[in-house]
Design brief:
Blueprint lengths: L1 H28 L15 H11 L5 H13 L13 H36 L4 H15 L2 H15 L18 H39 L2 H8 L4 H38 L5 H10 L3 H29 L7
Helix pairs in contact: 1-11, 4-5, 4-7, 4-9, 4-11, 5-7, 6-7, 6-9, 7-9, 9-10, 9-11, 10-11
Length: 321
């Protein structure tokens, strides 16, 4: 186990290094530069050149990359070109709403998807199974931004049940502790529902297939013939063996969750990482873009390694190679 973790850490560092390096050069290949936001066409070229020198954009891209890499290793991503703050400070402020959205959606999606998948597999071929399978395929197919817009239109603009944007109300500071918690929940309910429904469909689909295979396997048939309690067979044997592909799906779903969170945050105007990276890309705010990209690479690689380790703990037959 220790040797596997060390190998995976080394490989993970290489993957992160290659990923952020490619991102750095791709970002700098985008036409235009950050000075265009501040420059009035009537101002002289010397003003623009002064900003270029100040940001270090006049240096060769390779030299800019080496300087950025040297600082990034020390967790110093510099200052934002647009906001008068450090990049890490901006990311820290935006990280809280994003973590609240992604972790809540992941928890609800996994729990709800596994429950629906198990119930559907146990009632295979019935009306309940057909309804669940139809709903799963629908939510599995629709993009999260479309689902978010539909929920926003129905439950916010037409019915006025939920707020349409932001993560808290303008009078949030005057509420009690319980009121503040409820205010956060009511603002996150639609975004979490949007992201968790698409996740739930994926986990329900894979859990159902895994459970059907487990229920029709030889060890399940043998356990039934020996008179073992059916609930014990389902939850101790079948569900445990069907967990491996579901857990592996969590690792592959992390990039999807991050990508979905970006679109959902833009749709619901949440002040999270998604909205920050979109605005940073549009304004050519290189330090912020690179800081968020590095953090995203780290999360994806870390969760995939964690999923491999958990899979081996649940079923030692899964070889760590």
């Amino acid at each position: 186990m220790a040797a596997f973790i060390i190998r995976r850490l080394i490989i993970s560092l290489i993957v992160i290094f290659v990923g952020v390096s490619l991102t750095f050069f791709l970002v700098h290949l985008i036409p235009g530069d950050p000075t265009g936001i501040f420059i009035n066409p009537a101002l002289p070229e010397s003003v623009r050149q002064g900003l270029v020198e100040r940001y270090g954009l006049s240096q060769p891209v390779a030299l800019q990359y080496l300087k950025w890499l040297y600082n990034a290793v020390r967790l110093d991503f510099g200052y934002s070109f647009i906001y008068p703050e450090k990049t890490l400070s901006l990311i820290g402020d935006a990280l809280v709403p994003t973590l609240a959205l992604t972790l809540s959606s992941l928890f609800i999606g996994v729990l709800g998807g596994c429950f629906i998948g198990i119930a559907s597999a146990m009632k295979k071929g019935t009306l309940f199974d057909r309804i669940c399978s139809t709903a799963v395929m629908f939510f599995y197919s629709v993009p999260s931004f479309w689902l978010g817009l539909v929920l926003l239109l129905l439950l916010s603009y037409w019915l006025g049940i939920f707020p349409s944007s932001q993560i808290r109300s303008i009078h949030h500071e005057h509420l009690s502790f319980v009121g503040k918690v409820f205010d956060y929940i009511i603002h996150l309910l639609l975004p979490v529902t949007t992201l968790s429904l698409t996740l739930m469909a994926s986990f329900a689909k894979y859990t159902r297939e895994s459970m059907i295979n487990a229920l029709s396997s030889s060890y399940t048939i043998g356990a039934i013939s020996r008179g073992i309690d059916k609930r014990k067979i389902i939850f101790k044997y079948c569900f445990k063996n069907s967990l491996i592909p579901v857990i592996n799906l969590i690792g592959t779903a992390v990039p999807f969750i991050i990508g979905g969170a970006i679109t959902v945050e833009v749709v619901f105007s949440l002040p999270g990482m998604g909205r920050l990276i979109v605005s940073s890309i549009l304004s050519r705010d290189y330090p912020v873009v690179m800081g968020i990209a590095t953090l995203m690479f780290f999360f994806v690689v870390f969760f995939n390694m964690l999923v491999d380790i958990i899979s081996h703990i649940i079923d030692p037959r899964v070889q760590l190679q």
